[in-house]
Specification:
It is a single chain. The protein is built from no helices and 13 strands. It is 0% helix and 55% strand. The strands form two sheets. Strands 1, 3, 4, 5, 7, 10, 12 and 13 form an eight-stranded mixed β-sheet that branches. Strands 2-6-11-8-9 form a five-stranded antiparallel β-sheet, with no helix packed on it. By secondary structure, it is an all-beta fold.
């Protein structure tokens, strides 16, 4: 079972994008936007369980998690009910620009008895800044299906990366399951078709005003 996060900054016309840019008159040169690296840790992504691939143009990164699955039910340890992962993604981009994450798509699979509730939440912030934005999706059993959810972050417009040069994007995500009866069962995040849970981020750019 795998959880996958895809991030591209910005999308190139020659390739099908996994991250779309909001319409704007101010876009940086895509050849000057690069993902420089990623670090991670958490119960959903312990060391050695995350693989990553960076495209040749350094504008797209895919992270594949082998341990990001929450489960609940008889005989399952309570520590399996909630999984989390802290990601730090290093980015470089042209001076005079900054960007914001304003929404996200989540695609995966949930199987839950009636009375079981699942939650997927991600919080986005930039290193050295206190402002945050979040997206959250809840699922209620009975459920046995794939899903594709688009979430808007209400306060994302106030969370902008530092102006110019570099900005580390932090993503603190979690998946958790709760139930009204300890005999109920559930699992969340494993896609039944391609064994991946996909998170697609949408960003918008603006020119720095100061």
């Amino acid at each position: 079972m795998r959880f996958s996060t895809l991030l591209a900054l910005p999308a190139l016309a020659a390739a099908a994008p996994v991250l779309d840019l909001a319409p704007t008159d101010a876009l940086p040169d895509p050849t000057q936007v690069h993902i420089t690296g990623v670090t991670y840790g958490g119960t959903g992504c312990p060391q050695g369980t995350v693989a990553n691939a960076i495209s040749s143009d350094k504008t797209t990164m895919t992270l594949i998690f082998d341990a990001y699955v929450a489960s609940i039910g008889p005989g399952i340890a309570i520590t399996e009910n909630r999984k989390n992962c802290q990601l730090n993604i290093g980015l470089t981009y042209p001076g005079g620009f900054q960007y914001s994450v304003f929404s996200a798509d989540y695609r995966g699979y949930g199987e839950m008895d009636k009375g079981v509730t699942g939650t997927q939440k991600s919080t986005y912030y930039f290193s050295g800044q206190t402002a945050q934005s979040s997206t959250e999706t809840s699922f209620a059993g009975p459920m046995d299906q794939d899903y594709l959810i688009h979430d808007e972050a209400e306060n994302a417009s106030v969370v902008w990366s530092p102006c110019g040069a570099a900005g580390n994007l932090n993503i603190n995500s979690q998946v958790r399951l709760t139930s009204t009866n300890n005999k109920l069962t559930g699992v969340l995040t494993a896609d039944s078709v391609d064994t991946k849970f996909t998170q697609k981020l949408y960003v918008k750019w603006q020119q720095c005003t100061k």
